[in-house]
């Protein structure tokens, strides 16, 4: 099979992949037949899952706007996905043209496509990296070159921590990332959670994800708060993403509560 021109050489088109499944669910076209089949199966098992993806993406946009408003001008977006509508650099740089954004993803298609659309943008870049290896991400010379860790940075962990197993110590990962940040920095999180009345649907989708390289797990609001560790939980706390500084215009469905959101803050110590 010949690869489309946006696909990097050597990409495995036989296994569904979270980045490309999410891209397809959001109406994107950087995905393969195996990803589309997977998404159709997931949507059959849980018809509302597409709305959950949209609610998550909408939260990402609101969180970035809120962070720019709070004065943040640097973003480290890990598990950034395949560029689609409302990318972090577009949202941030529309409000603050000087904002800098480093995208990191484990998926080579996400990174290749991000690099393609960022060509010529000197304040945004993309690298391949694994959230489970935070020190490697922080030490990457391209990350160090773009971001000034002497100034506040917002780390975005949006719809990615649910791909990190307990054995890989998500709280330890967030702690290592936060230790690299100065006071006045933030960690924004969204995370899959169980919702009442959808047990079967969510079980089936979770099982489907076992076919991908990144299995998925739900966590409770308490577990998400624990992952944020010593960071101050600001704003409404750990809440359904649609309830995090809600957009009055957004249509909300009860099952969108399957994605939680929270904002951790590293206080400035005097
Ligand atoms: C559901 S998408 C979320 C994309 C974007 N953050 C958003 O919320 O719109 C999850 C992304 O996390 C990436 N991912 C999964 N595990 C990862 C890991 N260990 N390190 C970095 N990225 C990872 C996937 O490749 C995928 O692009």
Automatic annotation (TrEMBL):
UniProt GO molecular function: methyltransferase activity
E.C. code: 2.1.1.-
Transferase is among the record's keywords: yes
CDD domains: AdoMet_MTases (cd02440)
Keywords linked to the UniProt accession: Methyltransferase, Transferase
SUPFAM superfamilies referenced in this protein's UniProt entry, alphabetically: S-adenosyl-L-methionine-dependent methyltransferases (SSF53335)
Membrane recorded as keyword: no
GO biological process: methylation
Protein name: SAM-dependent methyltransferase
High-level lineage: Bacteria, Bacillati, Actinomycetota, Actinomycetes, Micromonosporales
